[in-house]
C-alpha cells in the first residue's frame, strides 16, 4: 500500500505560528470507498483562514484536532476513483488536508474540476485563475458592487487577494488605492497599475493619506485586515458605500483580544453596507467570474502574483511566513 506523509497540528499556536506547532508523520495510503476518489496533492494553498482553524474555537469550519492533519485548499490529481464524475487524471480543487494523498467525495467543500489551458502553469489555478481570483471577483463585484468610475481602497493590497482585486478593479475602470506595509510592496502594486500606493507603516495617518488620494470619498473598501485600518476607513466612505469583508488578518494571531472598532456609527451616518462573504455562497456567478478572469489574464490586464515554494515539507514554513507578513502575492507550495 505504501506510506503517505502528513503534516499534523502538534500544538495550538499562541500568537504567531512557529515550526514547533507542526510535525511531520506517516500513515498508510488512504483507500477510497464507494463514490470516493483518491487525490494526489499537486499544489498546496496557504491562506490566512487556516490560522483560524488551528484555534480551539468556532469558525466556519470545525477546528483542527490536535494530532490531526491541517486543513487547507489544494489542487490535486485524481489517481484512483470510484466516482464516474471524477475519473483518473482529473484535476480538482477542494478543501483537503496537508497530506500527500487524501480522499474526497461529491460533498467536499469547494470541490471544482480544473480545466488547465495549454501553456498555463498549474499553480496559477490555485491563485489568480482559481480561488484567489474568484474570491476577489465575488467580493469586489457581487458583494461590493464596484462600478466603472468608482474609487476602491484595498487593504493588504500586495497579498494574494488584494493584488488581484486591484487589477480587476482597474480592468473595470475604477480608481484604485492600495494599503501595504513596506516600500517594496508599494512598488509592487504600482507596477501592477494601482493609482496610489500607501505604506501604512511609513505614515501615522492612514486616513489622511487616503483622503488626499480620494478627496471625493471611497465607494468600496475591500477589507482584508480589520482592526485599526477598518476603523480609519469607515469615516472616509461615501454615502451608500460598500465594505466587502474578505478577512481580518490583523487579528488572526491574537483572536483572544480583538480590536474594538470605534467608528461603526458611520455605518448609520453614511448608510454603509458592510458584509462578510465566502466565495462559494455565490455559485451563481462563478462561471462569469472565471470567464472574465481568464480573459483578463489573456489580455495582460491581470498578472498573477505568486510566491511559490517547492516540496511538501515547506508547507509550515510558507504558512508561517504568510502569517508574519513576509510574503508578496499568493503563497503556494508545489508538490
TrEMBL record:
InterPro entries: ADH-like_C, ADH_N_2, ER, GroES-like_sf, MDR_fam, NAD(P)-bd_dom_sf
Top-rank lineage group of the source organism: Bacteria
Span of domain Enoyl reductase (ER): 17-333
Pfam assignment, any one: ADH_zinc_N
GO molecular function, one term: oxidoreductase activity, acting on the CH-CH group of donors, NAD or NADP as acceptor
Keywords: Oxidoreductase
Signal peptide annotation: none
Protein name according to UniProt: Enoyl reductase (ER) domain-containing protein
Organism: Novosphingobium mathurense
Lineage: Bacteria, Pseudomonadati, Pseudomonadota, Alphaproteobacteria, Sphingomonadales
